Amino acid sequence: MAEGSYRVLSERPEDEDALDIVNCRGFRRMSEAHLVRNIREYCPGFDRRYSVVAWGGDDVIGHVLFTPVDIRLMRETVRALLVGPVVVLPEQRRRGVGGAMLRFGHDLGRHDGFEVAFLAGIPSYYPQFGYKACYGFGKITIDTASLPAPTRELEPWPVQPADIEWLVDRHAAEWSDVDFACVRGASMGEWTMPGVEALVWRTSDGRRAAYTLGATEGKLEMLLADDPVLARVVLATVRPSELGLHPNGWFARHVLDEAWGVARADRSDAAMACELREGALQPYLAAVDEGTRLPGRPNWVLPFVLC
């Protein structure tokens, strides 16, 4: 696809170094370049056709990564595209390059039967391409001073292949009724990767107590468990001040105690989605507006915790 003096194409294997450069120059840091490489390596849904590249002559001038994912929406599984990073070189902005890349990805997604695209981005920019604020960033805030002391000792283990079936099951239990939550499968890369604090906590007799993901400045991105008592022991051991979970999840329903924790989910102007299939978002939006559904909260694909 050609627009003006630039072309928009899908990524090729030989483009990887150029994409590192455009993401580094565009964001003035390497975090997004590392993010793209991690998704490429560890996310099973990655598809080079959905890694959209803008070319000005022989130079890469922009990049948008669309990651195919299954999400939960109104208790159903829906094919979606998670959008980001989105970058255009500073000297190439205001030429329509970003919009051309977004349209390319949207058209490809519609052709392939995806229903929704969603992102976290600048509220003043994305609505012109069909995006509207419709979900949020739910969390559970923990008063660590009110947490009891752990009642038994637990040992952290790395994620093992034998843990995967249990992880898939517990992930489904936690997120099955949370809108925009990404469905996670049986690939090891969806649960652990170099540099990410992903742990399975075990009792002295080897029983799984919980899986925890991330511990940056007291925040856990996820805590999965099947026993409320053991989940509380893990919480008392790790003592996070915040959990990236949702009031509709298993943890909030079975483990949370108002003596030490509060769950909430709020809409955010930066949390936007657009329909790739007409009407795909309407039942959810109506339910949120009527107050019969809480705003959803993505549990971003694993590499996003490094962004």
Kindly, what is the distance between the CA atoms of the first and last residues, rounded to a whole number of angstroms? 30 Å
CATH architecture of the largest domain: 3-Layer(aba) Sandwich
- Which homologous superfamily in CATH is the superfamily of the largest domain? Gcn5-related N-acetyltransferase (GNAT)
The CATH topology annotation of the largest domain reads as Aminopeptidase
Q: Helical residue percent?
A: 10-25%
Largest sheet: 8 strands, mixed
**Average pLDDT score:** 94
Structural domain count: 2
Residue ranges: pLDDT <50 for 5 or more in a row? none
What is Rg?
A: 20 Å
- What is the tally of helical segments? 7
Secondary-structure element series: EEHHEEEHEEEEHEEEEHEHEEH
**Could you tell me the number of beta strands?**
16
Secondary structure class reads alpha+beta
Bulk shape: globular
**Strand order of the biggest β-sheet:** 1-2-3-4-5-6-16-7
What can you see in these coordinates?
- With 307 residues, this protein is α+β, with helices and mostly antiparallel strands.
- The chain has two domains: 177 residues, Gcn5-related N-acetyltransferase (GNAT) (Aminopeptidase), CATH 3.40.630; 126 residues, 3-Layer(aba) Sandwich (Aminopeptidase).
- Helix content is 25%, strand content 27%.
- The strands form three sheets. An eight-stranded mixed β-sheet has the order 1-2-3-4-5-6-16-7. Strands 12-14-8-15 form a four-stranded mixed β-sheet, with no helix packed on it.
- Helix 1 runs antiparallel to helix 2.
- The protein is globular.
- The two termini are 30 Å apart.
- The mean pLDDT is 94.
